[in-house]
Amino acid sequence: MSSINLELATKALSTVQDPDLHKDLITLNMARNIEVLLGDKVKFNLVLTTPACPLKAKIEEDCRQALTEAGAKEVEIITTAEVRGFKGFNAKQPVEGVRNIIAVSSGKGGVGKTTVSVNLAIALSKMGAKVGVLDADITGPNIPLMLGIKDQPGLTEDGKMMLPLEAHGIKAISMGMLIKEDEPVVWRGPMLHSAINQFLREVAWRDLDYLIIDLPPGTSDAQLTICQAVPVAGAVIVSTPQDVALMDSKKGMMMFNQLKISILGLIENMSYFTPPGSTEKFEIFGHGGAKATAEKLGIECLGQIPIQIALREGGDKGVPLTVSDSEGEVAKVFTDIAGKIAAKLSIQALECETVGIV
């Protein structure tokens, strides 16, 4: 006689909670196709809300423990993920094929926002998510250089949409793919608006969990165009620790608040420098400024990225550090930040479902 049956297995899994969503796996429909096989073996599908779930191992272990305590002698877990999409709190038309849009912003230039966008996208991709990057800096596009892309995008078979180019596991589109390397883009606001809308609506993104939009610095037309046109799931602010950068970052945060865009957190780039062969940290641009600013504004400091020569070299060579040194210190910081962002978006999507928005 088996010591566990389907009812007991289901009851056991109903005691396991998602640590971020604070509900049990049965209520969340994350435990599916539960079977009890001969020899007291329980087999089921664990469907996470994001492949970038930072607590995947804990959830799996909690399931094994609960089922073992309920009488299972063997547990087989088939773990997959279904990313919930964000449609927003207003009737904005979503981007076809994109479940979540993440805006990466900075109050001023030169803080490494594009470097963060690219490495964050690759970190999410390496965790199993389908990711794209849209370069919204029309007049200063750097995404092709940082991803090592030199080709021009093609068109779909019907000729109606552009096909994003792929590199290092992510899709990308940029004005830098459509013009010569040294050709300036001297456009007025309406033309910039039109180009951004084309990148949003006339690119065949096709089944992305996350589309990261690398915004130009500041608070201008590009930010307004995107935030008013599509449902942005959340914004990430990039700053250095120095006061002048943080002052401008605050303005960016206020802009997103006015536009009713959720701020997922603040990333402190160029946080410190450790010379090769040393363990001493030199805080060239100041100490803890982003963390203090985040606490003051009631948002999370998602992570502190150190200055590394290899990080700069990776961007210049088109092989980002999350690719060339995926197990290194900086790559692990990006992976941690990616997990936090994915978790926040999962929580937000569940909250929207609860109130009937999506």
Q: How would you describe what is shown here?
A:
The longest helix is centred in the last third of the chain and has 26 residues, at 329-354. Helix 1 crosses helix 2 (56-69) and helix 3 (113-126) packs across helix 11. Helix 8 links the parallel strand 10 and strand 11. The protein is built from 11 helices and 11 strands. The termini are far apart. The chain folds into 2 domains: 6-81, GMP Synthetase, Chain A, domain 3 (2-Layer Sandwich), CATH 3.30.300.130; 98-354, Rossmann fold, CATH 3.40.50.300. The strands form 2 sheets. The chain has an 8-stranded mixed sheet, with helices on both faces. Helices cover 35% and strands 18% of the residues. The protein is an alpha/beta fold and 358 residues long. The protein has helices at residues 6-13, 56-69, 113-126, 143-147, 189-201, 221-229, 243-258, 289-297, 309-317, 321-324, 329-354; strands at 31-37, 41-48, 74-81, 98-105, 131-135, 165-167, 170-173, 208-214, 234-239, 263-268, 301-304. The mean pLDDT is 90. The chain is globular.
What would a concise description of this structure say?
35% of the residues lie in helices and 18% in strands. With 358 residues, the chain is an alpha/beta fold. It is globular, with a radius of gyration of 22 Å.
Architecture blueprint of SSEs:
Elements: H1 6-13, E1 31-37, E2 41-48, H2 56-69, E3 74-81, E4 98-105, H3 113-126, E5 131-135, H4 143-147, E6 165-167, E7 170-173, H5 189-201, E8 208-214, H6 221-229, E9 234-239, H7 243-258, E10 263-268, H8 289-297, E11 301-304, H9 309-317, H10 321-324, H11 329-354
Parallel strand pairs: 2-3, 4-8, 4-9, 5-7, 5-8, 9-10, 10-11
Antiparallel strand pairs: 1-2, 6-7
